[in-house]
Amino acid sequence: MRSFMSAALFAVAALPGGAASADTIEVVSGQQRSFQLAAFGPTGQSFVAIDSNLTSFGFQFNALNPGSANLPFTFTLREGAGFGGAVVSTFDFTLPTSIDSRTPTWFDFDVTGTDVTIGNTYTAILSSGSARNGVVMGPDINIFTGQELSGDAYLPGRAFFTTPVYPNCAITGHCDLNFRVTGVTSVGAVPEPASWALMIAGSGLAGGALRRRRAPAFA
């Protein structure tokens, strides 16, 4: 009897109790322009959460003045669109000195433990006194006319500026920082057909073992 019962328990234990589902928003909006936060002040990017547990947040940076001091950045996540919402979380980070040219480079930092509500809007805000690094954004524009050369890369959100980088950003709302955010949420897994078959077979074996045990009572 023990062998039959062990098989049944193994069949149930082999079923996945949960699965990890990763969601990522990644926006690259032209990647032709960058600006210093030291000159323009804190800048934010609004987005709509597609996962309830954030794990990383990243932006594209480049080095506008590689010889300047590599000062830290502060990341603040606020509720709503803009600078005025309640603070959800805040982190400090320093970019690696390997970012030493004008080539746009992704840098992601850990925000594990940051909980948000799916479908709600949040704004990721960057601030720094660094003149070394620039934050990459789009759309690309004609520097002489201000005409946008590409469309709005992320319709659910937009970039917010303390001092406008381009006048058109405030007019059209088409400007976005190049950013990406990743979240991981544990969700209940639906067993695959093979798992269902294994579970049913195991239950059958368990039932057979119980029937065998009871047989002498009817003798």
UniProtKB/TrEMBL annotation:
**InterPro entries named in the record:** Ice-binding_C
Q: Which domain of life is it from?
A: Bacteria
Q: Name one Pfam family in it.
A: PEP-CTERM
Give a yes or no for keyword Signal in this entry. yes
Using the record, list the residue span of the signal peptide; answer none if the entry has no such feature: 1-21
The entry's keywords: Signal
Annotated Ice-binding protein C-terminal domain ranges read 189-213
The record's listing under NCBIfam families reads:
PEP_CTERM, PEPxxWA-CTERM
Q: What is this protein called?
A: PEP-CTERM sorting domain-containing protein
Instruction: Tell me what organism the protein belongs to.
Output: Sphingomonas longa
